[in-house]
Amino acid sequence: MKVLVINSGSSSIKYQLINMENESVLAKGLVERIGIEGSRLEQEVAGEEFEIEEEIADHEVGMELVINTLTDDDKGVISDVDEINAVGHRVVHGGEYFDSSVIVDEDVKEKIKESSNLAPLHNPANLMGVEVCEELIPEAPQVVTFDTAFHQSIPEQAYMYALPYEYYEDYSVRRYGFHGTSHKFVAQRTAEEMGEDIEDLKIITCHLGNGASVAAVKNGKSYDTSMGLTPLEGLMMGTRCGDLDPAAVPFIMEKEDLSPQEMDEVMNNKSGFLGVSGISSDTRDIEEAAEEGNERAQLALDMFAYRVRKYIGSYAAAMNGVDAVVFTAGIGENAIAMREDICADLDYLGIEIDEDKNDVRGETQEISSDGAEVKVFTIPTNEELVIARDTKELVAE
């Protein structure tokens, strides 16, 4: 079975074609700047990359280009679109409707639309990708996997906010959590690396990238997570502020004469690493500046490490213990010094990392000290593979 995995954004389409017989990636690519000058497709096959630059007016044109490229006589990997047996899509928000991946039908599409008020920048674009693929690959079943689904197991006392209850009843205001596909994948891989049944483990998963979140995975299910109603809550991130006193919002709005939309822009796109450092949202730039003595850059790094450390401690308390901690995503997989800083002063929990083992980037490896009570791992995430596996399982039923 060949599964095409699609992540459709507002102006982009990420894709992978995966052979599920051996879970090998036949091709992967990106269509970007859809509807914008300078649009192009980049595709990689067997380690070789190439680029096509042409006008891509909308997502339908973009998907047609993807299919034409995948079936191209010279650069393609399949001879005909009929070789695509199913399509799996990433959808950001499933609200309270979905706790697992599902085959698309009209009811599913309607519920994705209803959840768009909770993810207005993402769900409409995700749904657009589904509808375009339905049109262009009509014989292939369409499956959707939700970022929020894994976290639907979180207990009520963890997902509810202490607001008037009618806001939950009327507007579904609650914690949903995101990066669920990534947290699920690395937790399962951690259990495999330990040779243990995931249902017997308490794992803290740290998805640390430009967007960042931590999750408590207890007995194979999400028990709590740092992101909330939106991805803004929790850790500070590349440009997101993360946790803050809610009273700071109206205070700043009044002082700066900002509208709600302008304040939302500040918190989502001008804060985090960028806001504190004043340099960049990329930790690599900030680390370089910190090494040169920039105090605000160092402060941003210290704040991030401190906040991740706090979440690890709180989730160990929430689960009454922890067996493993795992780092994934861009920062988690590659920032050696950041992992060391995060794990500092967690020895009381049995968390200690080995300096030599920790000298690794982008690989699956245990980095905990020999004899440490809690195992610590770096594991590259693979959300596309989770979507492909779910798609295969559903289609085969």
Automatic annotation (TrEMBL):
GO terms of molecular function:
acetate kinase activity; ATP binding; magnesium ion binding
Residue sites binding ATP per the record: K14, H207, L208, G209, N210, G211, D282, T283, R284, G330, I331, G332, E333, N334
Answer yes or no on keyword Zinc-finger.
no
Residues that bind Mg(2+): N7, E383
Q: Which SUPFAM superfamilies match?
A: Actin-like ATPase domain
One GO CC annotation: cytoplasm
Catalytic positions?
A: D147
Q: Where in the cell is it found?
A: Cytoplasm
Q: Which parts of the sequence bind substrate?
A: R90
| Reactions this protein catalyses | acetate + ATP = acetyl phosphate + ADP
What enzyme class is recorded for this protein? transferase
What EC number(s) would the UniProt record show?
A: 2.7.2.1
- Quaternary state and interactors: Homodimer.
Function as written in the Swiss-Prot or TrEMBL entry = Catalyzes the formation of acetyl phosphate from acetate and ATP. Can also catalyze the reverse reaction.
Q: Which family does it belong to?
A: Belongs to the acetokinase family.
What HAMAP family does the record point to?
Acetate_kinase (MF_00020)
Q: What is this protein called?
A: Acetate kinase
Q: Which organism is it from?
A: Halanaerobacter jeridensis
